[in-house]
Amino acid sequence: MPDTTNHSSEQPPRVLVVDDNSDIADALGSLLELHGCEVRVAHSGEAGVEIAATFKPRLIFMDLGLPGMSGYQAAREILNTHPDWPLRLVALTGYGESVVQKKVAAAGFDTYLLKPARMAQIQEILDTI
Any stretches that span the bilayer, and where are they (predicted)? Predict the structure, then answer.
């Protein structure tokens, strides 16, 4: 599958995927790599915060319902620690729309996708980085 993503720089965009379901995280990571992204995967909020600090992603797909540090908490931590980063945060959730919309905005997410996310939705987000 060819890379159809329009990236603003010569380097592949760095994308972090954070999901405690390793099958979902690894599948999304592989899909993003096929689309020309440099990807790291974390399976907890704490690991996501730690990897983000050194990897410096341009885009993070973050599950909200993580054990321990939730996706909401991890997003706030990343944004508070690195307020100058040009970062897009996308929440991934299985929760219903009405429950999520206000909470993700308050936590600093740019948008959210309901699981399972469709490739067209992911591509739209990739096109913005």
Answer: none
Q: What is the pTM of this model?
A: 0.89
Confidence of residue 4 (pLDDT cuts 50, 70, 90): very low
Number of domains, the chain: 1
Our CA angle for 128, 92, 39, nearest 5°, is 60
* pLDDT for the residue numbered 1: 39
Axis crossing angle, helix 71-81 with helix 97-107, rounded to the nearest 10: 20
Q: Would 51 be classed as within a structural domain?
A: yes
Which residues share a beta bridge with 39? 15
Provide the 3-class DSSP secondary structure of residue 82.
coil
Q: What's the domain range around 83?
A: 14-126
Q: Tokens 């620690």 sit at which residue?
A: 81
Q: What is the CATH number of the domain that holds 114?
A: 3.40.50.2300
3-class DSSP state for residue 93?
A: strand
| Tokens describing residue 35 | 């689309």
